[in-house]
Design goal:
The protein is mostly helical. Helix content is about 60%, strand content about 0%. The protein has ten helices and no strands.
């Protein structure tokens, strides 16, 4: 399925479970061209669609590096938090560790531009957890 066709299947709103479940059933790599849009579904983990999409994104792992890099470079600190908390922190350790350099890159950018408050959030996310080394390594 091409990107144009897949875009028609994106959820109409945060309650559109039918469409999200259909996209998840298509699986990866079939939905590769709309990964960024699927990450938009986890901008707030309290949305019903986020609870369906987050585990799917976990299963994709570092194949979504480009999309996560774009999110980490953005100014939406809440979205960054949920990507770390609901997606990266639930990946297998080997996959989670791969995102450390992306996070460090974001932190350096934030120091330069002072654009978001997510830089300290891994500390809260990681309280007493390792998450494949993401938390321990990303903080330093």
């Amino acid at each position: 399925m091409n990107r144009t066709a897949l875009l028609k299947w994106l959820p109409a709103d945060k309650h559109d479970l039918e469409r999200v479940e259909a996209l998840v059933r298509l699986g990866y790599p079939a939905v590769e061209s709309i990964l960024y849009e699927l990450y938009e579904c986890v901008q707030d983990i309290n949305w019903p669609i986020a609870r369906v999409v987050a585990p799917f994104l976990v299963s994709i792992g570092f194949a979504a590096e480009k999309e996560v890099r774009e999110i980490f470079r953005g100014a939406d600190s809440v979205w960054k938090y949920w990507v770390i908390q609901a997606v990266i922190a639930n990946m297998p350790p080997a996959e989670g560790r791969k995102f450390i350099s992306l996070w460090r890159s974001c932190k350096k950018q934030e120091r330069s531009h002072r654009m978001c408050g997510a830089a300290k959030w891994p500390q809260k996310t990681c309280a007493g957890k390792d998450h494949g080394g993401f938390c321990r390594r990303a903080l330093y």
